[in-house]
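Hmm, how's this folded?
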Amino acid sequence: MQFSGKKRRRAPTVIIVSLIDVLLVVLIFLMVSTTFKREQPVLKLALPESQAAKPGAAEAKPLIITIAAKAPYFYLTERPVTFEQLQNRLQGEATKDPQLKVAIRADKLAPWGEVTKVIDAAKLAQVGSLNFYTEKPAKP
């Protein structure tokens, strides 16, 4: 007597449509929950404080020279440059635009000799105006 017959088992099938739906939901969740990289400043400067400083005029964008506390000292638009490259760039820009505005962002701890070099280079290039970035002192 044979009570159970040989039943042929089918291979399990994977329903691919539902897997795609689940993967799509996971992908959307990851895209929404991911924080996007924000542009970080290259240098962190501690600018000197000034109570008499006034906000600058917004007519023309100045050529910004950053002076760091550690070598490399000089940065033009957040790219490190040598002093010779800085001088050449100042000369070239001043010949193109005689009213060139130069703004210096120097760290509090930047060597004064390096700041003086930049001021001299700007004066030799005969730039239109030379300004400095400062911070307002924190109110107690």
